């Protein structure tokens, strides 16, 4: 801080100061409108994801636990990166030294937890489908919660370094002083940190996802159905009716698996595409001098990042019937909470495959009547049918 004061005093003695640089008006307007739109949609959507999973018993599955972690991380990104960008587009940095430290820390925390959550649910889906026997004991809600806690603790500790790497800087112009939140040392010294982040939270997650989803696709889309899904009691057996009913339920479970995998693949692909411009820019700027700082391209990179944090709830709504129904019910319950609170406690659903998170070795289906009472029946030995409750 003493150095900053000295710089201000030296600059004040210079008689030929330049004018303060201002962003073009059209850039300011576009930045504010796009950021507001994306942040409002994203914040509302991610809050709804958290609420529907926490408030709906049958939605509490291992996969959905990771999606809640992803939603919480995306909320942090939108609140710590998106909203401050609105004021920064007009008035430069207004949050001071403490705000610079805390906002930078939260930005990287949200970004890195988001990446780790994607990796976690990818591995969980791989185990659930490709190693279904082990999945009954490994892919549980309690284990998912422990993994998520570990991810947040590790990432929180990892991001502490940013408290020591950023600082505010003041530049005096003829018509005012501009405060920016930047780095303490030259950009070249940050190259190891940039590439460590790039490797840990972009390259490795995408590499893992590519390999594991390849194995999953081979099991679900290329291999024939397991023998226990075929009609083993065909012909004139007295058990033919029961066998046909069981086979239909099991084939429905396979279809459900395919749908949830498609949804998660879309999440991963969008993560890769929307983060690619910023990650590429960081890598390129690590090798060129001066760095490429076109304001419109920087705006494009920021909008891609915010969109990635806002789009996931829309994907769930479009590709998951369970989330779509839960979102609608949540909205109806909020509107009628004061009139008929009891109705919000009743959730009708049918053919919900019991999740392995219930610590059971036998998959079952559940159907609730209007009083919320469940009736259960065993459907066979389809080991992973229970873990796809969000389709």
Automatic annotation (TrEMBL):
Pfam families, alphabetized: 7tm_1
Spans annotated as Disordered: 355-391
Keyword set, alphabetical order: G-protein coupled receptor, Membrane, Receptor, Transducer, Transmembrane, Transmembrane helix
GO aspect biological process, one term: phospholipase C-activating G protein-coupled receptor signaling pathway
The keyword Cell cycle appears for this protein: no
Membrane spanning stretches: 29-54, 66-86, 92-111, 147-165, 193-216, 260-276, 296-319
PROSITE patterns attached to this UniProt entry: G_PROTEIN_RECEP_F1_1, G_PROTEIN_RECEP_F1_2
Cellular component per GO, a single term: membrane
Protein localization: Membrane
Domain (G-protein coupled receptors family 1 profile): residue spans on this chain: 45-316
Keyword Transmembrane included in the entry's annotation: yes
Domain of life (superkingdom): Eukaryota
MF (Gene Ontology): thyrotropin-releasing hormone receptor activity
Main location: membrane
UniProt family annotation: Belongs to the G-protein coupled receptor 1 family.
Job description of the protein: Receptor for thyrotropin-releasing hormone (TRH). Upon ligand binding, this G-protein-coupled receptor triggers activation of the phosphatidylinositol (IP3)-calcium-protein kinase C (PKC) pathway.
Protein name, entry field: Thyrotropin-releasing hormone receptor
Organism: Mola mola (Ocean sunfish)
């Amino acid at each position: 801080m003493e150095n900053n004061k000295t710089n201000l005093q030296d600059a004040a003695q210079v008689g030929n100061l330049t004018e303060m640089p201002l962003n073009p008006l059209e850039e300011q307007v576009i930045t504010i409108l796009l950021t507001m739109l994306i942040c409002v949609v994203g914040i509302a959507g991610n809050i709804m994801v958290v609420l529907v999973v926490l408030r709906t018993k049958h939605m509490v599955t291992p996969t959905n636990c990771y999606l809640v972690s992803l939603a919480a991380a995306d909320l942090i990104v939108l609140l710590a990166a998106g909203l401050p960008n609105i004021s920064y587009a007009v008035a430069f940095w207004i949050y001071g030294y403490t705000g610079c430290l805390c906002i930078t820390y939260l930005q990287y925390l949200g970004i890195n937890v988001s990446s780790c959550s994607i990796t976690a649910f990818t591995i969980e889906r791989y185990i659930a489908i490709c190693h279904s026997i082990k999945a009954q004991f490994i892919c549980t809600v309690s284990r998912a919660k422990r993994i998520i806690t570990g991810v947040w603790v590790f990432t929180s500790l990892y991001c502490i370094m940013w408290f020591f790497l950023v600082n505010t800087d003041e530049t005096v112009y003829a018509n005012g002083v501009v405060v920016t939140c930047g780095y303490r040392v030259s950009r070249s010294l940050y190259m190891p940190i940039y590439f460590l982040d790039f490797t840990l939270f972009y390259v490795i997650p995408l590499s893992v996802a590519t390999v594991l989803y390849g194995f999953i696709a081979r099991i679900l889309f290329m291999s024939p159905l397991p023998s226990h899904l075929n009609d083993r009691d065909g012909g004139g057996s007295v058990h033919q009716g029961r066998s046909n009913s069981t086979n239909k339920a099991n084939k429905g479970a396979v279809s459900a698996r395919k749908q949830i995998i498609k949804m998660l693949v879309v999440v991963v692909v969008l993560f890769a595409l929307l983060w690619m411009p910023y990650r590429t820019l960081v890598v390129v700027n690590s090798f060129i001098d001066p760095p490429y700082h076109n304001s419109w391209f920087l705006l494009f990179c920021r909008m891609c990042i915010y969109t990635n944090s806002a789009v996931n709830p829309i994907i769930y709504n479009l590709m998951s019937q369970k989330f779509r129904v839960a979102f609608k019910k949540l909205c109806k319950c909020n509107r009628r909470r004061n009139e008929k609170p009891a109705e919000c406690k009743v959730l009708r659903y049918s053919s919900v495959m019991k999740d392995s998170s219930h610590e059971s070795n036998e998959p079952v289906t559940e159907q609730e009547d209007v009083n919320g009472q469940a009736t259960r029946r065993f459907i066979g030995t389809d080991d992973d049918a229970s873990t796809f409750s969000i389709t």
